[in-house]
TrEMBL record:
N-terminal signal peptide: 1-23
Protein name: PQQ-dependent sugar dehydrogenase
SUPFAM superfamilies associated with the record: Soluble quinoprotein glucose dehydrogenase (SSF50952)
Listed InterPro entries: 6-blade_b-propeller_TolB-like, Glc/Sorbosone_DH, Quinoprot_gluc/sorb_DH_b-prop
Organism for this UniProt entry: Streptomyces beihaiensis
Region (Disordered): 30-60
Length: 390
């Protein structure tokens, strides 16, 4: 029987070093630390060579270019505006969306999303811009209500006064199970123009294996919220993959492969390569089990070193923001596999890290998450950072 981890994991004085297929040293340093607590599949994909020019080097780097702004409250979703002038940031607990000017750091409240019922890990979570944003100016949001988790879209009109720039929500998908914990919440439009939705099993593991439930899944929808044509369980099912515990990170690599981060329980947090119809094992297995019928993660971490939320793809690597781990992980890829040992950066420097988004080229946007009730806020928290990575 699997014993579920409580909402707040017990702190560990020293994370264990794990050696699985790879010797990984221990380090308490903040930048470029070896893969403490991480286990990866590091052998190159068939037909690939580890010295190919498109495989990232073993060692990367992270430079904090600047703090863009401070004083954000429980930031969660992050959506860059296409003209590069700003970012939309959701506040989980306040149910508001704020525009941050990326040049000056000025914050302007766009508006509040009606119906948000913030409690525990629920509230106003992921944001995404419509693939037709240039013509429709629609912002999509995943949020918790009194009865469920749902996705709605709203017109964003920056010409209106501050606080009144959001139109009324148009719910495109509802009925996702809600709970005090494990609400998922990451949404993103894929290269195919379809909406992908990461959900949680709300601490009820049976939902993850029930393909009729939308809890513990990655959903694939049209922009209007209908099950996407070609979904693996029929055109009437929104389910794209299942057997997930709590998905809070979605990103695509240069070859349009979908990656997802996932909270484990007491043993392993995961980075998964998502395939249509894949069963990722929860609650039957956690981490790499090698069990027939279940998809093993590509990389895994001890929860003290990870508890992953958002992920982004840049410079040939997946970058993963860690909450409990209080660090940014770099996972260099070689096709479908991990090319080299993951590296940890910014360890303990900014506290809990929630969302990371590609900003083009070698740049990332990163938000901290010290005001989410589980951190230890300092003056200036929470922050939006600009990073340069390699």
């Amino acid at each position: 029987m699997i014993v579920r981890r409580p909402a707040v994991r017990a702190a560990s004085a020293l994370a264990a070093c794990v050696t699985v297929l790879l010797a990984a040293g221990c380090s308490s340093g903040g930048g470029g630390a070896p893969a403490t607590g991480a286990s990866t599949s590091v052998s190159p994909s068939p037909g690939r060579s580890a010295d190919r020019s498109d495989v990232p080097p073993a060692k990367g780097s992270v430079t904090v270019v600047r703090t863009v702004t401070e004083g954000l409250k429980s930031p969660w979703g992050l959506a860059p505006l296409p003209d590069g002038s700003g970012l939309l940031v959701s506040s989980r607990d306040e149910g508001t969306i704020t525009r941050v000017d990326t040049r000056t750091g000025k914050k302007t409240e766009v508006g509040a999303v009606p119906g948000v019922a913030a409690a525990g890990e629920g509230g106003l979570l992921g944001l995404a811009l419509s693939p037709s944003y240039a013509s429709d100016h629609m912002v999509y949001a995943y949020f918790t209500t009194a009865s469920d988790n749902r996705v709605a879209r709203m017109l964003y009109d920056p010409r209106k006064p501050a606080g009144e720039q959001l139109g009324a929500p148009d719910t495109v998908f509802k009925g996702i199970p809600k709970g005090v914990i494990h609400n998922g919440g990451r949404i993103a439009f894929g290269p195919d123009g379809l909406l992908y939705v990461g959900t949680g099993e709300t601490h009820r593991g049976r939902f993850a294996q029930d393909k009729k439930s939308t809890g513990g899944k990655i959903l694939r929808l049209t922009p209007d919220g209908q099950p996407a044509p070609g979904n693996p369980f029929g055109d009437s099912s929104p389910v794209y993959s299942y057997g997930h515990r709590n998905v809070e990170g979605l990103a695509w690599d240069k070859d349009k492969r979908l990656w997802a981060s996932e909270f484990g329980q007491d043993t392993w947090d995961e980075l998964n390569l998502i395939v249509p119809g894949g069963d990722y094992g929860w609650p039957v297995v956690e981490g790499k089990a090698g069990k027939a019928g279940y998809r093993d993660p590509v990389a895994q971490w001890r929860p003290a070193d990870a508890s992953p939320s958002g992920i982004a793809y840049a410079k040939g690597s997946v970058w993963m923001a860690a909450l409990r781990g209080r660090r940014l992980w770099r996972v260099p890829l070689d096709g479908r596999k991990v090319a080299h040992a993951p590296q940890a950066f910014l360890t303990g420097r900014y506290g809990r890290l929630r969302t990371v988004v590609a900003a083009g080229g070698d740049r990332l946007w990163l938000t901290t998450s010290e005001t989410d009730t589980r951190g230890t806020p300092r003056k200036g928290d929470d922050r939006l950072l600009e990073l340069r990575v390699s």
